[in-house]
């Protein structure tokens, strides 16, 4: 993973990566620099700010380069000790960037607060999904440790408990 250079990006907490990957569908992705600006803009969004504040108040490390702009095979992702990547080659508008950041910040929050979270455990991953079942299934199926059957079983097993766990929000957003 290559980091971009340029002081303003690092100061804004945005890293750049240029891992080769195909673009999605026929909708053109936004230019990389526009995506980086979109990440900076999303950092000002009330929900993104709320999540960052909740992470900090829970003692989570919110390092300056938590989020990086990348070229990759999905819309975005979170990995422990690596942070969040927003896949610019899949972004077409500001709202997509903001929604990916919110989604991945929730994973980062869960990873910090739930000290025993194991991302190779399909049920743990399923519990971190704040989406409806169909969206949760899509996300958990993308985990290389979870087959489609294991993802469905995991979601069914944890749904009632995890669906009602809205932390860090007071209620479902």
UniProtKB/TrEMBL annotation:
This is Mitochondrial inner membrane protease ATP23. Transmembrane segments: none annotated. Belongs to the peptidase M76 family. Residues 12-22 have a biased composition (Basic and acidic residues). Residues 1-30 are annotated as: Disordered. Pfam families: Peptidase_M76. Keywords: Hydrolase, Metal-binding, Metalloprotease, Protease. It comes from Zea mays. The keyword Phosphoprotein does not apply. It comes from the Eukaryota. GO terms for biological process: proteolysis.
């Amino acid at each position: 993973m290559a980091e971009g250079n340029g002081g303003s990006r690092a100061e804004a907490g945005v890293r750049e990566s240029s891992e080769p990957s195909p673009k999605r569908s026929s909708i053109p992705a936004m230019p990389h620099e526009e995506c980086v600006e979109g990440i900076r803009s999303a950092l000002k969004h009330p929900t993104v700010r709320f999540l960052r504040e909740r992470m900090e108040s829970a003692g989570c490390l919110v390092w300056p380069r938590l989020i990086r702009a990348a070229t990759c095979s999905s819309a975005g992702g979170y990995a422990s000790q690596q942070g969040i990547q927003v896949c610019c080659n899949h972004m077409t508008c500001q709202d997509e960037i903001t929604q990916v950041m919110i989604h991945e910040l929730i994973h980062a929050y869960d990873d910090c607060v739930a000290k025993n979270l194991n991302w190779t455990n399909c049920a743990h991953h399923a519990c971190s999904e704040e989406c409806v079942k169909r969206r949760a299934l899509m996300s958990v199926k993308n985990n290389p440790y979870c087959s489609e059957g294991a993802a469905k079983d995991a979601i069914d097993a944890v749904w009632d408990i995890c669906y009602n766990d809205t932390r860090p929000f007071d209620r479902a957003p």
